[in-house]
Amino acid sequence: MTAHARLSLNQATVKYAPLAEALEVTASAGIASIGLWREPVAEVGLKTAARLVRESGLRVSSLCRGGFFTMPEGPERRVSIAENSRAIEETAVLASAGAAGSSAVLVLVAGGIRSGSTDLIGSRDLVRSALEELAPVAESAGVTLAIEALHPMYVSDRAVVSTLGQALDLAADFDPAVVGVVVDTFHVWWDPAVAASIDRAGREGRIASYQVCDWATPLPADVLLARHYPGDGVIDFGVLTAAVEATDYAGDIEVELFNEQIWADAPATVAGRVVESFDSVVAPHLR
């Protein structure tokens, strides 16, 4: 089986596979790149994880995730900043272990509205101040911090950054090589301004990652687990992919799925289905 050269399997798509198995099924499916998650890396340790990545021959497209910055100054915030600094180091190590073309990209999820508060704007300001603190660390390590806007249904508990435009506004004060954005179809497809925001992201050189998955209703009780294979929902991948391609983004494209039914399948089966859905729904719109 040969997958499209730019396809990357985000490790969350095969959530229950340990790192070694996730790498093996990715390579066996003919996929050349993987998006890693910190938890499976931590299970084996960074040194072992880097060795496994190196031996796999795969590129690394990103590491998920850092962020969760929306707490006031104090011990909890210091822990968060320190943890994100470690995540930056892990990103650099794992990207270096990956095959040529790997990306030292750390995906950031901002965090929900500050606990006990209704101050949405103030919560976003806390994200900005965290970026100010972490940007020099990332620059020194050669890592890009990639802000991921999440669908507004997650604003209270996961991400006060709800649109690509808001993510770009947060990134605007920083070097694009240091702070960029993620374009995730699941989170941005609904946004009337998404085409203009993708164009802006391209002009500013800030697209650090493009992630694809589909949206279908009814949503499950846990809306975090609502992601579907491309083509199984209502998202127009032609429009969004063409917009990203028009920016000259040439990096890997991750399929990232959070879905209990998908996770219950054998990882090799999932990887094969990812290849098929990407080839039929996304790849036709790539240059």
For the structure shown, list the relevant keywords.
287 residues; alpha/beta; TIM Barrel; 11 helices; globular
What does this structure look like?
By secondary structure, this protein is of the alpha/beta class. The protein is built from eleven helices and ten strands. Strands 1-2-3-4-5-6-7-10 form an eight-stranded parallel beta barrel, surrounded by seven helices. It has a two-stranded antiparallel sheet with strand order 8-9. Strand 1, helix 1 and strand 2 form a beta-alpha-beta unit. The protein is globular. The mean pLDDT is 97.
Topology:
Elements: E1 7-10, H1 19-28, E2 33-37, H2 38-44, H3 46-56, E3 59-67, H4 75-97, E4 105-109, H5 120-141, E5 144-148, H6 164-171, E6 179-184, H7 185-188, H8 194-203, E7 207-212, E8 214-215, E9 227-228, H9 237-246, E10 253-255, H10 260-264, H11 267-282
Parallel strand pairs: 1-2, 1-10, 2-3, 3-4, 4-5, 5-6, 6-7, 7-10
Antiparallel strand pairs: 8-9
